[in-house]
Amino acid sequence: MGINNFIIREIQPKDNAQIESVIRACFHEFKIPLVGTAYADEETPKMFESFQNKNDVYFVIEADGEVLGGGGVKPLKDFDAEGVCEIQKMYFSPKIRGNGFGKLMFKKCLEAAKDLGYKKCYLESAPQLKAAIHIYESFGFKHLDSSLGNTGHFSCGVWMIKDI
Question: Domain containing 86: what range?
């Protein structure tokens, strides 16, 4: 697949099944727990519907009509401080990993967070996702000792935050 043969766009209803498949496959591939993670989220099968508020957005990477990854921004659930968003559900098919798409998508999400008026960006990850954590660190995200808000992702052991 040509690296130039892709688009990053906002999610559409027709993308739900494909992005759900990409997300779920990563959990099996990296042996990440299925409970207490995005795998078990009610949102995962209905990503389009889950990102339709004025203060959130979800992007997908599409190549030749196939959705190969995605990532989004939402307010951090049950967190009192204003202006804090969470980068959520950023997963990619092995078909496109290692080609800079993670960085591209991450940059797109950070820009969207800023455009939506957020001041801080939070994320959670699993220690198995070493390449992703490296990207977050390279963008200046700092590790936290514990989680913020109430994402329900008690099986994620990596928590990071950054001022934007």
Answer: 7-163
